[in-house]
Amino acid sequence: MRHFTVKLAMLSALAFALSVTFAFGYQSQPQTSPAQDQAQQQGHPPPHVDVEPDPASRQLERAIQDEFAKDPHSAYARVTVHVTDTEIILGGVVLTATARDQAVKIATDRAAGRKVTSLIKINKNIHPA
Strands (DSSP E) along 49-108, which ranges? Predict the structure, then answer.
């Protein structure tokens, strides 16, 4: 019985030593991303995601989406528009090839020299809800 008590005491001492080691070894430190570290090293503040990068591009996106919503071929279509300074990217799902072609035409008419890329899929089984 005495042998068991000695083993139990040694095990509890080892467990206590390990818990103290982990407690001091894993102190909470604020974690930063590599981009934040690099920005802080260069003396620049990190970029803010909530700042709109290009209001003119967002305005063009809304104009294209509004024009597409007015088109009768686009009933039940779910088209997304993303505008960069060099490209307009169309994505989403439409019912017919005519709706896809019309979306590309609307974007091309408003492209102002930007390349139009269509990633629109045709799915005739889109539920109208």
Answer: 78-83, 87-94
Q: In whole angstroms, what is the distance from residue 79 CA to residue 13 CA?
A: 65
pLDDT per position as a tens digit, 53-91: 678 888 999 999 898 888 887 777 788 999 988 899 999
Strand partners, 82: 89
| Average pLDDT value for residue range 110-128 | 85
Q: How many helices (H) and strands (E) does the chain have?
A: 4, 3
Report the alpha-carbon distance of residue 13 to residue 48 in Å, rounded. Answer: 49
pLDDT tens for residues 40-55? 555 555 555 555 567 8
Q: In the numeric block, which tokens belong to residue 79?
A: 């088209």
Question: For the whole model, what pTM was predicted?
Answer: 0.56
Phi, psi (5° rounding) for residue 28?
A: -70, 125
Q: What radius of gyration, in Å, describes the C-alpha atoms of the chain?
A: 29
Domain ranges of the chain: 55-122
What fold, for 55-122? Answer: Histidine-containing Protein; Chain: A; (3.30.1340)
**Dist CA 114 CA 51 (whole Å):** 23
